[in-house]
Specification:
Length: 1321
């Protein structure tokens, strides 16, 4: 919930307030709902939008879409036509509700009447009406009718809201009005006018400060007081109504105490709400006099309590002022690791909610639980032939999936908290299984020695995440007729819980009878099934899985197209399910020592193979794809090389070369499209066709060439490039038929090559990317993401750190090394914490967590645990609870942990798991040796384990008392892993938009990205990380095209969304702040720009400290803005810090360093300290001259500036001499001191943020346009000698403007950080 642009970024964004917008994640209809109110950007509540507040183009919306879609790639024309059909047919209706002004609502013919109901329930002025119908010309509309099917409904129709008879379930939801607590008071007053700018940052933000306070992370408004509307609103003790009162229409009774201390009893009846004559001790249901009969409870309360009427109205007004993005629920819950102390007020409604939801019912389906499996599978079966169908399907999949993840998380917590009865209560607690809300829960322990040969409990703990990766992969391929289970993995209180949807009928029969494909005993008995082979064959190409044969217990050959563990079960619903996908990807031989198998020399040099905790270590899907692509390039090179050797025969050249060229074009295509599995499939087919072409050639030599190349790269086909892996190689207990011995040998070699590729190619690539700053992790999560994108598992973290230590440019990797060490230590601590927590009784949880954090982070050497005294009195209690919580052992063993013991364990864990030597015996040694920050360690361990702590200042370094007490531990949250369903069409539009932008067609790119934003909104609702990326890019384009206010509006939404869906101190949120600050400056909001930059700097100090290349960019921004407001001394502190960091990480001869020198020189010039200015500018000039040559424009500019500075210095010296000589009679020439202009500062800000505007003459523009047209014509004719992408290098120009923008690749948004969109698989 932060910042309207003129506010300091604010507090707790991670809570989802219980407000009527909670339904907003529900696809398009509900996603649009909260955006009907004023959006905080000055638009009235009447202009409603369909798919989110889209760039405010309310009127020209449809036209711009039609224009934008004409320019897209040919292959997507049909898609875009379909989009026009959808978007073009929206119309506006007028809604007339009792007691409010009529308002306009934009609707789509595809929507149902129910969705308009939802909009009205979400609007502040109509939300308290829960029982109404919509009427058109006196006819009641059916809630489930599509708008297009209603006769007479057209543009401008008036829909009347008619109050109806109240039903019991609707009366209940009225009580939610009590939840209108005032959260808006936390906001500061918006002031768009230029106020007196106070530029002084807090001390802890200044360069060089070692202080890292925690309290500013969530700024609290000291003056905020909650606005109370009622004291008590609860169900009366006289409920339920007796039979004779039911016959009078009584539904229930409410007990209310108003702010004026008036105690009243209210009857909710089918006619409305009225006061009755009951008191606390006497039941008299007759209407009071006067009874104030009202249709809504809000109306009744407004009549009996003036304070309610006044405060409730004020409250609604305040809520409307908040940006909708601050109130819409996020699709997946985000938890904050810090929270302020909140007074726990009495709230009867909250109490009732808590106990009704524990029954496991979904609130919006009264009286029945949801059949999750049916919902998940039915949505996948929806048609997907055209765009509207695909949108509907993806929206349904996403909605059901986010609901399932939320329900599974709640269930997992209930299981661990002991609130769910096991289905096998007689078994030992570790072996118990649970069913809650139609979801099956199992614990991550090795039940019945199932994983004994694979690593016991360690394997049982790793299997669920491997299985989830398999589910993710198969869901991505999305083969019709093949079904996976809904799967969520929850880590909570030291336990791992797997939640799965239930296959119909599976609980009624034995597993042996159910499984008709695969093996239930790791390969001893194996069965196969024709239909499963047919379905899995379709997944084998995109997932690179080889069809292979294994032997069963009778030595019969059984054919499989997956690993043996993958089980096929046909449910009672007739669907073909696959489960246990833990070996979808091939094993990682670097962590799987096998007798008689020697790895490549490069692996052996690094100490592989290494013993791992379990034998389920698999390669990542990203690695498989990178490896296959690498092999394909190798294949092409080898084939081309051999063909060149066969050049002797002229004819063979003519026939063979085109074939190879064609294949290489296919490679380019396949590289461009690997994000989509279906396109990946077609590319693979194309590539094999292209290669086959060369084999069909008349010359047998070319056939031989391809055969040799296929053999060399390990292709499973001799006539085409086709690499696939057998996931059963090296699986214990799996035997292969003798006739496939050669093939198995090839597969073993392929696995060795893949393991070698990871360490010899991918790890160095990561380090190289970190060196050239194309990968810039800021915290543990972004480092993990960088590893995963390159297919490197986190178990290689020690190897990566060792590789960095041996790199010659080690100093330039210091920031990554520090983040890596922090990640390694906190992961080791997490492993220890997991087993530590399992032995803790629920009543001692906060004491145990605070004790662990003291041992981990506090300098206090004798951390002693405070055992809760009352828990140790009765041993009988403990015995009673033994069956409730899945743990065992001594419940007080945790209290004996000491700091030295914990750090010893961390060091040995680092050695055994990551094979990395720490050699540190205490937290202070680690901090000293590696330059870590305790606050960063606290954040990382809290985020990884789900701890939430009180936001206050902690003294970690005190040697006299521990840093944490049990009151500081506020909560412990689940850490949840699940599949993220994707919006594929929206992503295609986003990619097309990016391609257009990179070719220089900014307007068309902008329109395509707007379209992508619409489609993302359609699928995900209004809140999602990919919508965030879309808004960021749109803002960047608006800015480049000169529309600064629009850029500001879009970026503000990106910031709000990033805080809500990622967290307030996530690295992406920090980036969003920086971009928002730039656009604020361009809109003359200088004070806001500075506050945003200070906020970004504070967050960055908190998560990674000052010594990071990104800090140089941030400090350059701050320094420039301070220069603009003439705070020269402050400006110098930041700019000189930026210069130091740039010099360290980019090298003293880098162009970034030259620019830093120039910026510092300009501030010195403004201070009239010309000697210092000259010194810095000379440094910059030297770098430009050495790097670019004397003739380069930059070198010339620097040279001119040096001359100017010299003249100024000489003039100043003359003046000084004149004063010394003649005293007060001196005739002083006025000196020119240049106060920087805002335009100059903005130009410099653009340059450092990677946006360079280069003026173009009208003649240049004409030439440029002619060149573009010529190339387009050539492309259409298929004669283009150079690809259209080269236009990006020629020019990126803005239509109708005398300038062009060139994006600096190192800084431009779409190449800078791997956004979530670029990992779209």
């Amino acid at each position: 919930m932060v910042s309207k642009t003129d506010d300091i970024p604010a507090s707790v964004p991670n809570c989802n307030p219980a407000d009527p917008a909670d339904g907003a994640q529900d696809g398009k209809g509900a996603g649009k709902a909260p955006l009907k109110e004023s959006c905080g950007c000055g638009h009235s509540a009447d202009t409603a939008m369909v798919n989110g507040d889209r760039a405010h183009e309310h009127t020209e919306e449809t036209d711009s879409k039609q224009d934008g879609n004409g320019e897209a790639d040919g292959g997507e024309e049909s898609n875009e036509q379909e989009v026009i059909v959808i978007q073009d047919t929206g119309f506006t209706v007028k809604i007339q509700a009792p007691g409010t002004e009529p308002f306009d609502l934009q609707v789509s013919p595809q929507e149902m009447v129910q969705e308009i109901h939802q909009v009205l329930m979400d609007r502040e002025d109509t939300c308290h009406r829960t029982c109404f119908s919509l009427q058109l010309d006196g006819n009641v509309l059916d809630n489930f009718a599509e708008l297009k099917s209603i006769e007479g409904l057209q543009e401008g129709s008036v829909l009347k809201v008619v109050e109806g008879k109240i039903l019991k379930h609707q009366g209940l939801s009225i009580m939610m009005t009590k939840h209108f607590g005032d959260e808006t008071g936390k906001r500061k007053k918006k002031g768009s006018e230029m106020e007196q700018i106070d530029c002084t940052p807090p001390e802890h933000i200044l360069p060089g400060s070692k202080e890292r306070p925690l309290v500013p992370l969530q700024p609290q408004n000291k003056d905020w007081k909650p606005m109370q509307c009622l004291k008590v609103l609860t169900m009366s003790g006289w409920n339920p109504p007796p039979g004779n009162r039911k016959m009078h229409g009584d539904l229930m009774y409410l007990y209310i105490v108003t702010v004026e201390e008036r105690h009243v009893s209210v009857t909710a009846s089918t006619r409305g709400f009225y006061l009755n004559q009951s008191t606390t001790y006497t039941f008299n249901p007759k209407p009071a006099n006067p009874s104030f009969l009202s249709h809504s409870l809000v109306e009744l309360l407004s009549q009996i309590s003036p304070a309610f009427k006044k405060n409730f109205t004020a409250l609604q007004k305040k809520r409307v002022q908040r940006h909708p993005f601050e109130r819409i629920a996020t699709p997946f819950q985000v938890y904050s690791w810090t929270a302020p102390q909140v007074d726990h007020a009495m709230d009867c409604v909250r109490a009732e909610d808590a106990y009704t939801s524990r029954l496991g019912y979904e609130e919006h389906i009264p009286g029945q639980t949801r059949d999750w499996n049916e919902e998940l599978q039915t949505t996948r079966e929806l048609p997907r032939k055209n765009l509207p169908e695909r949108l509907l399907r993806e929206r349904a999949i996403f909605k059901v999936h986010s609901d399932f993840a939320a329900a599974a998380t709640r269930g997992a917590m209930a299981v661990i908290d002991g609130n769910v009865m096991a289905i096998n209560p007689g078994e030992e607690t570790r072996m118990q299984m649970f069913i809650w809300n139609n979801i099956f829960f199992s614990l991550g322990f090795d039940v019945r020695d199932h994983y004994r040969e694979l690593g016991g409990d360690a394997a049982a703990h790793a299997a669920p995440t491997n299985d989830l990766n398999g589910v993710r992969a198969y869901s991505g391929v999305d083969v019709e007729g093949l079904y996976t289970l809904g799967t969520v993995v929850v880590d909570y209180r030291g336990y791992r819980v797997t939640a799965q949807s239930i296959i119909p009928g599976i609980l009624e029969r034995e597993q042996e009878q159910s499984v008709i494909y695969g093996s239930i005993d790791f390969g001893k008995t194996v069965v196969s099934h024709g239909k499963y082979l047919e379905l899995l064959e379709k997944t084998s190409r995109p997932l690179k899985i080889q069809r292979h044969s294994v032997l069963n217990e009778k030595n019969d050959t059984v054919e499989l197209c997956s690993s043996v563990e993958c089980k096929g079960i046909i449910g009672n619903d007739g669907r073909h399910y696959i489960l246990d996908l833990l070996r979808t990807f091939p094993p990682d031989l670097n962590f799987l020592p096998v007798d008689g198998v020697e790895l490549s020399p490069e692996c052996q040099r690094l100490g592989f193979p290494r013993q791992h905790r379990h034998r389920l270590a698999c390669l990542r899907q990203e690695l498989i794809e990178a490896f296959v692509e690498h092999r394909y390039l190798l294949f092409m090179k080898m084939a081309a090389l051999q063909l060149m050797q066969h050049k002797a025969n002229r004819d063979s050249i003519k026939t063979d070369t085109p074939a190879i060229t064609e294949t290489s074009e296919t490679l380019a295509e396949s590289k461009a499209d690997t994000t989509q599995t279906d396109t990946a499939q077609t590319n693979a087919t194309d590539s094999s066709k292209a290669t086959d072409l060369s084999t069909d050639s008349t010359n047998p030599k070319s056939r031989e060439v391809v055969l040799n190349a296929c053999k060399a790269v390990g292709s499973i086909s001799d006539t085409a490039f086709d690499i696939r892996f057998n996931p059963d190689i090296f699986s214990p207990g799996v035997r292969f038929p003798e006739e496939s011995a050669d093939d198995i040998q090839k597969q073993k070699q392929l696995l060795k090559d893949a393991a070698a590729f990871l360490v010899s190619c991918q790890v160095p690539t990561l380090v190289k990317d970190c060196l050239d700053h194309s990968a810039l992790p800021m915290d543990g999560a972004s480092l993990t993401e960088a590893l995963h994108q390159r297919g490197i598992n986190v178990r290689y973290l020690g190897t990566v750190l060792e590789f960095m230590e041996k790199t010659p440019a080690k100093a330039q990797l210091e920031h990554i090394y520090r983040i890596g060490i922090t990640e390694l230590i906190t992961r080791c601590a997490k492993h220890i914490f997991k087993t530590y927590l399992q032995g803790v009784e629920l009543s001692a949880l906060s004491a145990a967590v605070s004790h662990f954090l003291n041992c981990f982070l506090s300098s206090f050497p004798d951390a002693v645990a405070h055992l809760p005294p009352d828990e140790l009195v009765s041993r009988r209690k403990n015995r009673k609870r033994r069956n409730r919580v899945p743990g065992g052992g001594d419940n007080t063993a945790w209290a004996s942990l000491t700091p030295s013991e914990l750090w010893k364990n961390i060091a040995s864990e680092a050695q055994s798991y990551y094979h990395f030597t720490l050699q540190c015996e205490s937290v202070d040694q680690v901090v000293e040796k590696f330059g870590l920050q305790k606050i960063t360690l606290l954040r990382e361990i809290s985020v990884k384990t789900g701890i939430q702590i009180l936001i206050k200042e902690y003294n970690f370094d005190s040697r006299h008392k521990p840093a944490f007490t049990e009151e500081d531990i506020l909560n412990i949250f689940p850490v949840v892993k699940h599949v993220n369903p994707k919006a594929t069409d929206a992503f295609h539009f986003f990619q097309s938009g990016q391609a257009k932008v990179q070719q220089g067609f900014l307007k068309e790119g902008c329109e395509l990205i707007n379209e992508a934003l619409n489609l993302f909104n359609n699928v995900y609702g209004a809140m999602h990380v990919e919508i965030c990326s879309c808004l960021r890019l749109l803002a960047r384009l608006n800015y480049i095209l000169g529309d600064h206010p629009e850029a500001l509006s879009n970026q503000q939404k990106a910031v709000l969304m990033s805080e809500r869906v990622l967290g307030i101190e996530h690295p992406n949120t920090i980036q969003e702040y920086m971009h928002l600050a730039l656009y604020c400056f361009a809109n003359n909001q200088l004070s806001t720009a500075l506050k945003l930059l200070y906020r970004a700097r504070y967050l960055m100090l908190l998560i990674c400290g000052e010594d990071h290349p990104e800090m140089a960019l941030l400090d350059s921004n701050i320094g420039l803005v301070l220069h603009g407001v003439m705070e020269y001394d402050l400006s110098l502190r930041f700019l000189e810090n930026a210069l130091t960091i740039n010099t360290k990480y980019h090298g003293p001869r880098s162009l970034k360093v030259a620019l830093s020198h120039h910026l510092v020189a300009r501030v010195y010039e403004s201070k009239a300290e010309f000697r210092s200015a000259l010194q810095h500018e000379k440094e910059g000039y030297t770098i430009y001259k050495n790097q670019m040559g004397e003739a380069h424009e930059k070198t010339k500019e620097s040279s001119e500036y040096l001359k100017y500075l010299t003249q100024q210095a000489v003039a100043l010296q003359r003046t000084m001499n004149e004063i010394y000589k003649n005293g007060s009679n001196a005739s002083i020439m006025p000196l020119k001191f240049t106060a920087p202009s805002m335009a100059t500062i903005l130009d410099q800000l653009n340059i450092i943020n990677g946006i360079i505007f280069i003026p173009l003459s009208p003649k240049d523009l004409e030439n440029l346009k002619a060149e573009v047209q010529r190339r387009q014509q050539l492309q259409e004719l298929g004669k283009s000698e150079e690809p259209a992408e080269d236009l990006a290098n020629t020019a990126i120009f803005c239509y109708g403007r005398e300038r062009r923008a060139v994006m600096d690749e190192s800084q431009s948004l779409w190449t800078r950080k791997p956004s979530s969109l670029n990992q779209h698989k």
